[in-house]
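# step 3/5: fold
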Amino acid sequence: MAQIIAGVAMSHSPMIMTNEAGGGERGQRFLASAAEMKDWLKQVGADVLVLVSDDHFNSYFYNHMPSFTIGIGECEGWGDWQLPKYKIPVQQSLAKHILETGLDHHVDFAFTLSMKVDHGHTQGIYFLNPDLDIPVVPIAVNTSAPPLPTMDRCFKVGEMLRGAIESWDEDLKVAIVASGGLSHWVPIPKIDSEKPEDQKLIQVLKKGREEIEELDAYLKNRETRVTNLKSGPVNEEWDRKMLELIVSKDYAALRGWSAELIEEKFGNGGQEIHNWLVLLGALQSFEPKVVCYEPIPEWVTGMAVVQFTA
């Protein structure tokens, strides 16, 4: 039977790719911690990575927005934010087993044989599995388009995930990675905004890529909206509060956080901590250690790395 042997929860930020130097010494400490986790996953012998992250209105829009999606066939990166268009090797046997186990335990994943993932997943690949020598099970959580799954629901999906992995009839070692967070505010309009300048983008958010007339220009405009931010707010107090709750294993408190609270304290981008709750649900018995926390306004994000050991 398969065995879960490790976990890593790690922030991502596209600004790393476009403005690495802007992070200064804090940024370099984060990158060093990410490199340490890559080496550690090799040392513990991870045979598979279950990678939990989110989409940023690249694959999923309001015309079709699943709460949880699992890739069970091919998987390719969009190549956004100067990341490679990875052809990600999928551990299809485990992915299908997780899907089927979920159906048996009241977790109905959306699934795809041709998954496309953006920097939420591919930055995790870039830092932890750049040679693609460890096959991946990609899972996407809706953290962008309210209404969102609750934190408690994400935790319960993680509990199911652990049971599925441990019942998989393969003698392989599995690591779980959650990519996203912590606090950051993304310059994207709310879907009910009535501002004239927001309407063109809102139509894309509602109807998907078919609303985009010039894709290259659209993607460039999206990138410019973010890279124009030379600094962004980071809520260090609440980032550290969350990390303290993780270290003390007060998962009940985190499960009770509402989307409204998260948006107020962590920002709309901070909803990505839902990804972390999936990991926490799976790794309740593991020991968490904060390897790194750096508030980096130049990357518009509170950047953290947490290691989970069996």
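# step 4/5: annotate
The chain has one domain: 3-187+229-309.
# step 5/5: archive (pending)
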